[in-house]
Recover the amino acids of this structure.
């Protein structure tokens, strides 16, 4: 009876740990990550786990303009090797093929 319960617990644990995203195709490639709170960075994906904790190398953080919080400034900060906590990750996208566009919802003066 106890052995059956342990097998069921192991099966349920394996199901819970599966991630929706398969980031293995982005390993060793440049990705961009957006975090809760508005921070953004890009780096080479070195590793990840089912909770979306990420390990990025050659990481660059994009700093926001202090006067306009929705706009990035020209300043960047080099961070090197970082571990990004999965609970704060909002968006992950490949850096290749991505381009910046102006915000269509902000009136252009």
């Amino acid at each position: 009876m106890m052995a059956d319960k342990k097998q069921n617990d192991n099966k349920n644990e394996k199901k819970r740990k599966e991630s929706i995203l398969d980031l293995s195709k982005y390993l060793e490639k440049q990705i961009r990550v957006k975090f809760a709170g508005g921070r953004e960075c890009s780096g080479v994906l070195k590793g990840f786990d089912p909770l979306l904790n990420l390990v990025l190398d050659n990481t660059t953080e994009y700093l926001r303009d202090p006067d306009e919080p929705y706009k990035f400034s020209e300043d960047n900060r080099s961070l090197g090797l970082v571990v990004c906590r999965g609970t704060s990750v909002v968006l992950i996208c490949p850096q290749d093929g991505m381009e910046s566009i102006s915000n269509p919802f902000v009136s252009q003066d």
Remarks:
- The mean pLDDT is 81.
- The first strand starts at residue 30 and ends at 35.
- The CA atoms of residues 28 and 45 lie 5 Å apart.
- The radius of gyration is 19 Å.
